[in-house]
Amino acid sequence: VPQEQNKITKDYLLLDNVTKKFGTTVAVDHLTISVAKGEFIALLGPSGCGKTTTLRLIAGLEKPTEGKIFLDGQDITNVHPRERDVAMVFQDYALYPHMTLFENIAYPLKLRKVPRKTIEEKVLEVATRLGIKDLLSRRPGQVSGGQQQRAAVARALVYRPKIFLFDEPLSNLDAKLRLEARAFLQHLCKEEKITTIYVTHDQAEAMAMADRIGVMDQGKLLQIGTPFEIYHRPNNIFVAGFIGNPPMNLLTCFLKQEKDLTIIVGNEFELDLTLPLEQKFSFEKLGEKYLMLGFRPEHVKLSSEPGPYAIPGHLYAIQPLGAETLITLQVGTSLVSVRLFTDQPPTFSNQMYIHLNPNRIYIFAETGERLWP
Ligand code: ATP
């Protein structure tokens, strides 16, 4: 039946209301994620938000306190890790120290009784692609941390598991290798169409690699969506503040109604937002409450002249970064970041105006929830 097929395809991996407690610590809190076959999902969040525990639950290294996990149409909640056919690359590599890199990478193939010649071909191919071909006769202790990490990635890539689980696999690589390895991993996961869950606290890595990003905080999934959705339509202040470099500017403000006008009042600025907000807000509900005005550093312009959607600020710092210039301004007691993609920044004076684009502003409730747009 097509509909059933569709359901199975859609929920290739399903975490169904999964909770994991360690004593009184709730590491994962009623998490539901549905992953399609071949999808690349990044789990993003600060340290301690439950990313690693989520991966370990999928791998079977932890058992859920509540909830169920399904993979490829099978309930794997109580299936032994070895029988789940998932490959996990840990933060700390977990290579066998007494084996050479070759033997480490070959291990999953050996377990599956692949012929020796095929093993040699496959190990050589993946080692070449990861740039560790010349190190295959060494033991993990005889190569650098970054090379160990690449060997761990190679060991996961050498056979085709049902799912790849990556726990910050690039964190020990230097900046250049990291960018290369990022492109390589993304290319490989896509080309091989292997479903991937990739844990990172690096929002740029998540944005660059993933089909969808799940943002976690305190064991909860706050939002899951495409990088575009997460960037343009963050559900709440936490997601807005976690994505972007520098992240979204957030200024405390409140709404004021004057005749038919909707004015947003901040610390040392007032903006008439009547037109962009289209009278959407109920003043009975929001008129006296604190709100957050949000705008991204890359969505504003800067000049020494005022304008209809301009916030005055004092120049605090200018950082020329080559293709762009990062400018920090002080607005009231807050610092605001502005990113200008030009090698000809405006003439700076102490008092500058940050010109907002009314189509690119956000308003969040005090509770954090997005109210606009
Ligand atoms: P990081 O990015 O630092 O690795 P994380 O998002 O992966 O963090 P987890 O390692 O999943 O977070 O931890 C989530 C919470 O569960 C933390 O508060 C952590 O201290 C706790 N925790 C994780 N493993 C255990 C354990 N075995 N026993 C007790 N508490 C644990």
TrEMBL record:
InterPro entries documented for this protein: AAA+_ATPase, ABC_transporter-like_ATP-bd, ABC_transporter-like_CS, ABC_transpr_MalK-like, ABC_transpr_MalK/UgpC-like, Mo/tungstate-bd_C_term_dom, NA-bd_OB-fold, OB_MalK-like
Pfam families: ABC_tran, OB_MalK
Keyword list, A-Z: ATP-binding, Cell membrane, Membrane, Nucleotide-binding, Translocase, Transport
Keyword Transmembrane assigned: no
SMART domains per UniProt: AAA (SM00382)
Entry keyword annotation includes Transport: yes
GO molecular function, one term: ATP hydrolysis activity
PROSITE patterns with a match to the protein in the record: ABC_TRANSPORTER_1, ABC_TRANSPORTER_2
Domain ABC transporter stretches: 13-243
GO CC field: ATP-binding cassette (ABC) transporter complex, substrate-binding subunit-containing
GO biological process terms on file: carbohydrate transport
Protein name per its UniProtKB record: ABC transporter related protein
Species annotation: Pseudothermotoga thermarum DSM 5069
